[in-house]
Amino acid sequence: MVTIKEIEYESLGALNKLYDELIGHPTNPQKLEATFRTIQADSRYILLGAFVDGELLGSMMGIVCQDLVGECRPFMVIENVVVSSRSRRQGLGKKLIAALEAIAHERDCYYIMFVSGEKRKEAHIFYEAMGYREEKVEGYRKHLSSH
C-alpha cells in the first residue's frame, strides 16, 4: 500500500539513501538533520515522501514562493525529485506530484516550476506525461561554493 505524507524525523536515514541515489553520494547526516528541522518549522516547505508498506521509496520537495507582480500570487518550485531505482514505474512519482499540485492549488499558486538536468531523459518523459511542458526559457545556475 502506498502512502503519501510529509516526511518526519524518523525517516531521515531512508531519505539520505534516496538522496545518495539522486546525487551519487550521501548527504552529511548532521547537516541534513539541522536543515530538516529548519524547513520543518517553515510552512512554505513541503517535503513529501512516498511510503510503500511503511518504507520510504520516493520523495520530492515543494517550496511556495511569494511573488510581487501581477496579482501577487505565489508560485511553487519543486526540488530533489527522487524515486528509488527499485520502485520506478509503479506510480510513486505520479502520486507525489499530484499531492504537491493539490497543495499548490490550496495555496493559490499561479504555476509550478522546476529544473531537470538535460541528461535525465527518462525523467523528462515522466514530467511531460504529468502535463509539464518544456517552455522556451533559459535556465541558469551558478554554484557559489564547492563545500
From TrEMBL:
<dbReference type="InterPro" id="IPR016181">
    <property type="entry name" value="Acyl_CoA_acyltransferase"/>
</dbReference>
<feature type="domain" description="N-acetyltransferase">
    <location>
        <begin position="2"/>
        <end position="147"/>
    </location>
</feature>
<dbReference type="Pfam" id="PF00583">
    <property type="entry name" value="Acetyltransf_1"/>
</dbReference>
<dbReference type="InterPro" id="IPR039143">
    <property type="entry name" value="GNPNAT1-like"/>
</dbReference>
<dbReference type="InterPro" id="IPR000182">
    <property type="entry name" value="GNAT_dom"/>
</dbReference>
<keyword id="KW-0808">Transferase</keyword>
<protein>
    <submittedName>
        <fullName>Acetyltransferase (GNAT) family protein</fullName>
    </submittedName>
</protein>
<dbReference type="GO" id="GO:0004343">
    <property type="term" value="F:glucosamine 6-phosphate N-acetyltransferase activity"/>
</dbReference>
